[in-house]
């Protein structure tokens, strides 16, 4: 009887630990081994054949085709600077400077990856349609209501993620990886 | 007591093995992988421009880009890709069956505004070397790690007004079977 209980314990523990660890790491990614700049996270190897099994499994589960490393590097933010999850009910102010890149784009997505629509269209901010102020840092407002300057409309409810993609950039390469620059700071303003 | 500790240690060790095995199985078994999602939107052997909204076809797609996709199947022979990439920013990336990119070119590599690549299966490499025509532009040939996969052509749209023309351009990319050449004895 005790032997049967021990066997059940062994297999239960094995299944629990093994499947639990797989589920968690595939859903959240490995907490280490990523490029982290403030609230932004990137996986520079995910777009190469050298991607580790965690990156491969994560991309397969999301159904995503990762951006090739030679193309660009996407940074994802799920929280603001204070670590609170991004919420569509809140306003956010993004401010900072971006590292050298030929092109960058910023877009808001639902956690499952569909773009947040504004007035029936999906529009993303990018380096070609952004307004810059002389000498000042880049400022972007995320809000449900129209804002002056660079404004990305939010709509709907619930959590969201921000994706900042730098195209044709050296950040994420071994030379730059040791010296991560600050990306856009994400400051939460009022919530409704 | 010793037996319980032994059982716990065994359970944890087996748990590690289960974790490794299931982790490697995820890309093979994940429902709704990128290739499966494209099955509804992009036919085999032809580029289709993906709809602007919705996560059903490729989630986390950059809304600043116009994306066209083509699935390929190397069972019937090599596939030749030709895509026009405007110099505003365009890229062509080749992904394997599990969505992992293994080759990418941006418009910087384009000649006359277009890139041309031939995708081969590892079995076709030797044959392709024999068939190499002495004249003409040297062909860029890459070997796909899997027999099926997909190609994405992504063109940057600086504004909504640029989209219709870019959608036309992206849709004109071709991904046909390579015309077979005669092998001279």
Automatic annotation (TrEMBL), chain A:
Name this polypeptide is given: DUF1214 domain-containing protein
InterPro entries: DUF1214, DUF1214_C_sf, UCP009471
All copies of domain DUF1214, residue ranges: 73-169
Lineage: Bacteria, Pseudomonadati, Pseudomonadota, Alphaproteobacteria, Hyphomicrobiales
Signal peptide stretch: none
From TrEMBL, chain B:
Domain DUF1254: 67-170
InterPro entries membership: DUF1254 (IPR010679)
Protein name: Putative membrane protein
Organism the protein comes from: Hansschlegelia beijingensis
């Amino acid at each position: 009887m005790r032997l049967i209980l021990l066997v059940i314990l062994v297999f239960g523990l094995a299944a629990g630990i093994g499947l639990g660890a797989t589920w968690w790491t595939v859903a959240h990614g490995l907490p280490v081994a990523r490029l982290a700049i403030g609230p932004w996270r990137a996986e520079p190897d995910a777009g190469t054949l050298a991607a580790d099994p965690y990156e491969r499994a994560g991309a397969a589960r999301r159904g995503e085709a990762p951006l090739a490393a030679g193309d660009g590097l996407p940074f994802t933010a799920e929280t603001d600077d204070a670590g609170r999850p991004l919420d569509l009910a809140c306003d956010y102010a993004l401010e900072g400077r971006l590292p050298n890149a030929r092109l960058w784009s910023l877009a808001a997505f639902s956690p499952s990856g569909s773009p947040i629509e504004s007035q029936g269209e999906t529009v993303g901010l990018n380096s070609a349609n952004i307004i810059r102020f002389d000498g000042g840092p880049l400022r972007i407002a995320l809000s449900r209501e129209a804002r002056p300057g660079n404004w990305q409309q939010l709509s709907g409810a619930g959590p969201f993620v921000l994706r900042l993609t730098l195209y044709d950039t050296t950040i994420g390469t071994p030379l730059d990886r040791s010296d991560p620059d600050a990306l856009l700071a994400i400051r939460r303003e009022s919530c409704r | 007591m010793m037996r319980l500790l032994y059982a716990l240690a065994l359970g944890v060790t087996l748990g590690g093995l289960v974790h490794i095995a299931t982790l490697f199985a995820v890309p093979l078994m994940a429902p709704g992988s990128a290739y499966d999602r494209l099955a509804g939107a992009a036919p085999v052997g032809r580029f289709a421009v993906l709809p602007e909204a919705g996560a059903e076809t490729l989630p986390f797609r950059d809304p600043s880009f116009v994306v066209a996709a083509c699935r390929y199947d190397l069972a019937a022979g090599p596939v030749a890709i030709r895509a026009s990439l405007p110099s505003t920013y365009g890229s062509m990336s080749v992904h394997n069956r599990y969505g992992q990119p293994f080759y990418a070119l941006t418009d910087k590599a384009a000649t006359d505004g277009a890139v041309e690549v031939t995708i081969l299966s590892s079995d076709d490499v030797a044959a392709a070397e024999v068939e190499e025509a002495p004249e003409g532009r040297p062909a860029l040939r890459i070997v796909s790690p899997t027999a099926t996969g997909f190609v994405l052509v992504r063109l940057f749209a600086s504004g909504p007004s640029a989209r219709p023309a870019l959608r036309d351009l992206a849709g004109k990319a071709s991904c046909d079977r390579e015309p077979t050449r005669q092998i001279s004895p």
